[in-house]
Amino acid sequence: MNKGALSKGFIYTLLIAGSLLMLLPFLWMISTSLKPANEVMMLPPKWIPSEILWENYREAWNIAPFGRYLLNSIIVTVLSTVGELITTILAAYAFSRIQFYGRDILFSFLLGTMMVPGEVLLIPNFVTLSNLGWIDHYEALIIPWIASIFAIFLLRQYFLSIPKELTYAAKIDGCSDFRFLWSIMVPLAKPALITIALLKAIGSWNAFLWPLIVTNSKDMRTLPVGLTSFSTEAGTIYELLMAGSTMIILPMIILYLFLQKYIIEGISRSGIKG
Amino acid sequence: MNVHPTLKSTLKALLYLSPALMIIGVFNIYPIIKSFAMSFYSDYDYFNDVVYERGLDNFIYIMKDADFWLAMKNTFIFVIGVVPLSIIISLGIALLLNTNIYLRGFFRTIFFIPFVTSVVAVSIVWRWVFHTDYGLLNYFLGFFGVDPISWLTDPAWAMPSLIILSVWKGLGYNIIIFLAGLQNINKQYYLAAKVDGATAFYRFIHITIPLLSPTTFFISIVSIINSFKVFDEVFALFDRRPGPVNSALTVVYYIFDKFYVEWEFGIASAAAYVLFIVIFLFTLIQLYIGKRNVHY
Predict the structure, then answer these.
(1) 8 Å CB contact between A105 and A258
(2) Structure confidence by residue, pLDDT tens digits, A88-109
(3) pLDDT of residue A177
(4) Looking at residue B296, what is its pLDDT?
(5) Which of A3, A234, B188, B258 gives a 20 to 30 Å CA spacing to B29?
(6) Are residues A260 and A142 in the same domain?
(7) What residues of chain B score a pLDDT lower than 50?
(8) CATH number of the domain residue A117 falls in
């Protein structure tokens, strides 16, 4: 019994130490972001600032147009998430409920293309968007991202798990395919749809390489792109850099803490398939 | 609901698929082909889409470019540094979390937090953690009598810094997948082994490891593919440079540089395809090894 208690204590110690390693950078970030300038570079580090300086956030906000970056990030995240949900629902329905010529070949082909790293697509997409005149416009940040093969795959699997009998019953009652999809399938697939939406929102909010390449002007930057250029300008003013980072990091942590069930379930499910 | 495909059902399906297929066609499938073609363009005007000359020049260029080989070498070091370390640590934590303890969900929540945060933003936070004089890391190492390390400015330490950041960032994802895999293992095996008097260590080696191998296999494939594509971390951690004296130049950074800084679209496309082929070969090798060693 004693040995059990000892190993339990050991497990807790390890887990608490691990959790601290995970959290310390974030606590350090928040602490620094609220410090007066003379307490930032200090040894030993001061975790709790002598006065909480919200001013840093306002100052960062004044030096770089973070308000505009934030607005852009919100617009891009919301529209690409909504767009992806719509295209995914329609496509997943076709792949799971309609028998059509070439269905399995098309589906395997799409899955196959997922193997190609996104970096390969970067240059032709940039040329396409230049030709469309979309560079430095919202279209370039949103349109290429409103369809995802991975999301279609995820939702198709979920739709397949919904009993076919429901479809037959609806058909007998004279329900059209389209109405059946939106009034029966979509509500039933809510957990999968929330997972897809959350993974998309996180990915879109944090996306970097793509927005970096398709935006030129300050007005079109999203938060991550704005932060890197701010970091080049602000250099070593760490309290401002940390204030900027907090603005990007905190919203996603809060979203995650409230809706983690859906995120974790979605990720576990995608793993088990392997 | 038709049981057999008909012309009508096919047309209907195409209608449902058209929004997704249009986007995927233009932004996923066309560029795969176009990029391949572009890698052979040796003289090209992208504004007017005119090709003057095709050939192997781009591939010859990168094969002769010392920077490309440096980028390959660094990327391999990164993959070899991150993947095993991340798998071992996350498996360890998943095993701890899979025991009968309080606050399991709470710990799991915490380990996963870095995964949902912006790579760019956390890299800038880590830039501050790695600070030579006032960074948190050197401060803690000071307790153990370690002299301050120039994490981000010493070429020898640039890659280890990048590896530490990446392991920290990706741990949560692997833990979640390992936990799902562990919970899939039938408890009966453990009970049977216990009845036969197998020790905890023996049970781990002979039950957990083999039955978890599909999960480990999945994680290693995903981690290797992702590690080969490292870019955002480098860009943000070293403030728009590939580390001191190119010590953290990775393949994707090289592609980005050729594409977006030097506007050499052909060379960048060729380098991207080489990366794709390398990743593809690695995945094939893993699938081959997996077939022989993974127990389903």
Answers:
(1) no
(2) 999 999 999 999 999 999 999 9
(3) 85
(4) 60
(5) B258
(6) yes
(7) 1
(8) 1.10.3720.10
With cut-offs at 50, 70 and 90, classify the pLDDT of residue A273. very low
Q: Is the dihedral of CA B96, B102, B104, B110 positive or negative?
A: negative
**Which of B2, B6, B38 is closest, CB to CB, to A124?**
B38
Pairwise CA distance, residues B5 & B18, whole Å? 18
Instruction: Say whether B117 and A11 touch across the interface (CB within 8 A).
Output: no
A:143-202 residues touching chain B, CB 8 A cutoff = 143-144, 146-147, 149, 152, 164, 167-168, 171, 177, 202
Q: Which of chain A's residues have a Cβ under 8 Å away from the Cβ of B136?
A: 24-25, 28, 45
Q: Facing residues of B54 across strands? A: B41
Q: Give pLDDT, residue B45.
A: 80
Instruction: Tell me the backbone φ, ψ of residue A136, rounded to 5 degrees.
Output: 70, 25
Task: For residues A215-220, give the mean pLDDT.
Answer: 92
Mean pLDDT of A213-226: 93
For A265, the domain range is 55-272
| Amino acid A274: pLDDT | 35
Q: A207 and A262 share a domain?
A: yes
Query: Do the chains contact at B126 and A223, CB–CB below 8 Å?
Result: no
Domain check: are A49 and A59 in the same one?
no
Tell me whether A108 touches chain B (CB under 8 Å). no
| Structure confidence at residue B2 (pLDDT) | 52
- The mean predicted confidence, pLDDT, of chain A is 89
In a mutational test of the B interface, the residue from A100, A159, A204, A236 whose CB has the highest number of chain B CBs within 10 Å is A100
Quote ipTM for the complex. Answer: 0.89
Sign of CA dihedral A87, A89, A90, A94: positive
User: How far apart, in whole angstroms, are the C-alpha atoms of residue A230 and residue A241?
Assistant: 8
DSSP, res B231:
-
Specify whether A39 is located in the same domain as A128: no
Nearest to A43 among B101, B134, B225 (CB): B134
Please judge whether A223 and B16 are an interchain contact, meaning their C-beta atoms are less than 8 angstroms apart: no
Q: Judge whether residue A271 has pLDDT over 70.
A: no
Q: Other C-beta atoms within 10 Å of A143: how many?
A: 20
Residues A43 and A120 in one domain: no
User: Shortest Cα distance from B156 to chain A (angstroms)?
Assistant: 22
Average pLDDT over every residue of A215-227: 93
- CB of A261 within 8 Å of a chain B CB? The answer is no
Separation CA A79–CA A72 (nearest Å): 11
Count of alpha carbons within 13 angstroms of residue A184, beta-carbon side: 20
Are residue A229 and residue A103 in the same domain, yes or no? yes
pLDDT digits (tens, 9 = 90+) for B268-294: 999 999 999 999 999 899 888 888 777
Cα–Cα distance between B57 and B63 in angstroms, integer?
10
Instruction: Give the domains, in start order, of chain B with CATH numbers.
Output: 7-56 (no CATH), 59-293 (1.10.3720.10)
pLDDT for A3 equals: 62
Total domains in chain A come to 2
Report the residue from A103, A120, A269 with minimal CB separation from B276: A120
- A131 and A82 part of one domain: yes
